[in-house]
Amino acid sequence: MRATVMYGAGDVRVEDVPDAALREPTDAVVRVLRSCICGSDLWPYGSMPASEHGQRMGHEFLGVVADTGAEVPGLRAGDLVVAPFVWADNTCDFCREGLQTSCRHGGLWGHDLDGGQGEAVRVPQAQGTLVKLPSGIGADSPLLPSLLTLSDVFCTGHHAAVTAGVGPRTTVTVIGDGAVGLCAVLAARRLGAERIALMGRHKERTDLGREFGAAEVIAERGAEGIERIRELTGGDGTHAVLECVGTREAIETALGAVRDGGVVSRVGAPQYSEVPMDFGTLMRNITLTGGVAPARAYIEELLPDVLGGTIEPGLVFDRTVGLEEVPDGYRAMASREALKVLIRP
Question: Is pTM beyond 0.85 here?
Answer without folding.
Answer: yes
